[in-house]
């Protein structure tokens, strides 16, 4: 339901001397108190209503009884445009950032939509079916941390990539998905209109491992490399978030920066032998002996 329906009801309640407030508005239309307060602010600041809160009545009235609610109607398409403009204002990096932020907030208040998803979903309108579908797929993949296979059109060539979508952004009048590419082992910024096809897999990725790798790469720190004999071939260029490459048969080289995190990974993963480095073998052995000692202690106490 449009917020104009709620505002008209609120205006009518004031004129009838019922002194409405945000609680009554929320109860009447089964919305949140936050949304109700936003509606009241919209009436006061955007529609210039001379609202006055009367403490004795615990509700609102008009200071100027001659105020008339303007006949304002906005289509869903126009709301999407305003929402999109607000999104773009927030994305651009201006020197007068506080002013731009206020403009974005003002544009947002012209619509009655709730806050956008935490995954950073982009507003979409007047788009072709394929673009709409890819928006939906990538939004879900970001939220659920799913690996995605895409066909990406880069100039005259079409590349098939296996990516970990991280977030959606808007830059320079175009929309992009920031992703980690397993094959290239780095972050890529891909134009959404360059994605021909997208398929979300059932595989998940560990975003924290990607972040750590990127931060260490930026600082120039070289990763440690472990040689591990796996129980079965590894599919893809990562082993539960750790970059991996084949060496010989089922022997793989696995890169990591934090030894404790990697040891924890070894304790819960399927593998046959840790071949190198020796210092990592010793630390894993100590960790396992410590766990066995605690287990034996518990058994003896029983």
Automatic annotation (TrEMBL):
Transmembrane segments: none annotated. It holds the Pfam family WYL. This is WYL domain-containing protein. PROSITE patterns: WYL (PS52050). InterPro entries: CBASS_pafABC_assoc_protein, WYL_dom. Signal peptide: none annotated. Residues 134-199 form the WYL domain.
